[in-house]
Amino acid sequence: MTPQISQQEINDVLWKACDSFRGTIDATEYKDYVLTMLFVKYISDVWQDHSDEFQKQFGNDVERIKRKMERERFVLPEESSFYCLYDNREAANLGELINIALEKIEMANKAKLTNVFRNIDFNSESRLGNTRKRNHILKNLLEDFGDPRLNLRPSRIGNLDIIGGAYEYLIGRFAADAGKKAGEFYTPPAVSLLLAKLLDPQPGERICDPAAGSGSLLLKCAAHVRKVYGSDDCALFGQEAISGTWALCMMNMFLHNENSPRIEWGDTLLEPKLIENDKLMRFEVVVANPPFSLDKWGADKAGEEAKRFNRWHRGTPPKSKGDYAFISHMIETTTQGTGRVGVVVPHGVLFRGGAEGKIRQAFIEENLLDVVIGLPANLFFGTGIPAAILVFQRDRKERTDVLFIDASREYESGKNQNLIREDVEVAKIVETYRARKSVDKYSYLASRDEIRENDYNLNIPRYVDTFEEEEEVDIAAVQKRIDGIEKELADVRKQMAMCLKELGL
Questions:
Q1: What is the value of pTM for the model shown?
Q2: Which structural domain range is residue 147 located in?
Q3: What is the CATH classification number for the domain harbouring 84?
Q4: Structure confidence by residue, pLDDT tens digits, 70-89
């Protein structure tokens, strides 16, 4: 039996592959080359795996095998296979061959992969250097991915999120420059899972992420519908501003058998593209981990915006902090009766004043805010600051209270990041949310009047008292202990002096 490959083994190969690009192009760009090649390698291994299975069943019946392969969920032209490219790694026009292979993959899978590779050029002289240098880089890249350890056949990868896990890893390694510059904070799987459990997407619902990233939140929501309700009946929508990340998202959807998501490329705040009858599309579930405190998000366009979509009718967020712009957009795109929103935010969103304070007040007075959850620090690649989750609901019936949960102190320490576990920390948060009860030093159910008294400040310590009284110090016992230590020290010094005297020192 072939042993399963681990995410760490994949990551090791990826990091080695990155060596080929260092000193040539910026980390923000070469991760796209590495992840694209990972995609090609994976679909090639899946294709070969299925082909081998059919050969076992039908022997040398080439036509029958061909017909079976044509019914696969994707088509891989022979000349686009990783192994064909690998065999041609000495070719003088290697970059061109890879581009042609990617174009053919797109053409063969138009409904799922149209334009996914439009912004990646393996034959770019401006990015990869002259022909000699470019061929050297690409040959090394193919040889790294040809590593026998990187066998990505289904039997070896298990349930691994190939693209998502690799993206998380690379963003983490590049966090010092690439990640922070781009504002790309990959959502850890446990946080994505937590949001899916909190929002509880149902069969038949439309789910949207207006800052889709690599698609992890959408995929977790779809997985929740399948696992909890045994249904594939949900529709995924999203928009992503960064072209390379949009492409990764589409590849990730493809790898997870999500065959008909609508993921648009563009800036959600400046140019929302999920439009229906010239109005913003509405969704039952809207979930996102948008860029924290995005500068120059488009506040200067608020006047034009009001005429068309009027997303900022509660107030225009400050031009240097786009947090409430995303939140306002998300709420405006929910269905009136059943709509709910889950969003990851920096803690400043909970208490900053000015325009943000007025918007926050409006949300509370409209009875939209349902829960505020404080998360541990250092959960996200690219930033060590603690974050919070806000959940909004359109229809809270007669409920006007807001639940505060302080989960900031409960986590498992990791080497590079802290972790929250599905069966421990995530389970506790979800259980507390559903029970909606105050738990000593963990949660508090605050009335709207209490929030008003706090001037609509949602800073969690105002509501959840986590103060631990220090144990009283027995001064007499401490002094007695000190006296004992000093006596022991004096005895040791006396013995040492005697030893030194015997040695003539």
A1: 0.83
A2: 7-160
A3: 1.20.1260.30
A4: 777 889 999 999 999 999 99
